[in-house]
Amino acid sequence: MSYIPTPEQAEELVKRFNKDAFHIQHAETVSKVMGEFAKEYDADNVDYWRAVGMLHDIDFELYPEQHCVKANEMLRELDIDESVIHAVISHGYGICIDVAPERYMEKVLFAVDELTGLIGAAALMRPTGISDMETKSVVKKFKDKKFAAGCSREVISQGAEMVGMELHELIGKTINAMRA
């Protein structure tokens, strides 16, 4: 019988397959951001959104070349619910897998995954971190292709379009979610 993990169970699974502190922190950040978005868009399912955010890169450390493909296999073997598996693997749509985000929650995950990396990198450059970061400073970093070059601007823009937000709005909401 498949199950939907709690955020705590999802964290245990992530830590079972990931040892690098960076990957664990990224999973925690995306989980918390997803939880904050859920409070606004799907308040009855905050834990579900958080668990999906936590699990989204469960395979990345072990199988970076087969990202999302291996997550599909791993989560099936762990007897995770199909809805969670679809949500997790769809965040790699057009990058490493052909499974498109369908539900709003999946689109939010697609949109915020890369964006949290860009915002996190910008926060590291500031003496006050994210605490007083403004949207316009992240937009400026977004336009500088050399800054956090590993964060795909195309994916972030595509994600903003998927969730029906202007880039400024998505960045602002994500900053606020990361702050929380």
Outline the secondary-structure elements.
Elements: H1 7-17, H2 21-41, H3 46-55, H4 69-77, H5 82-90, H6 104-124, H7 135-143, H8 153-162, H9 167-179
Task: Summarize the structure in words.
The protein is mostly helical and 180 residues long. It has helices at 7-17, 21-41, 46-55, 69-77, 82-90, 104-124, 135-143, 153-162, 167-179. α1 runs antiparallel to α2 (21-41) and α5 packs across α6 (104-124). The longest helix has 21 residues, at 21-41. The protein is globular and about 45 Å long. The termini are far apart.
Question: Could you name the key traits of this structure?
Answer:
9 helices; 180 residues; mainly alpha; globular; 63% helix
Radius of gyration using CA atoms only? 15 Å
Number of helices: 9
Largest sheet: none
Question: N-to-C terminal Cα separation, in Å?
Answer: 35 Å
How many beta-strand elements? 0
**N to C succession of SSEs:** HHHHHHHHH
State the share of residues found in helices, binned by percent.
55-70%
Overall pLDDT: 96
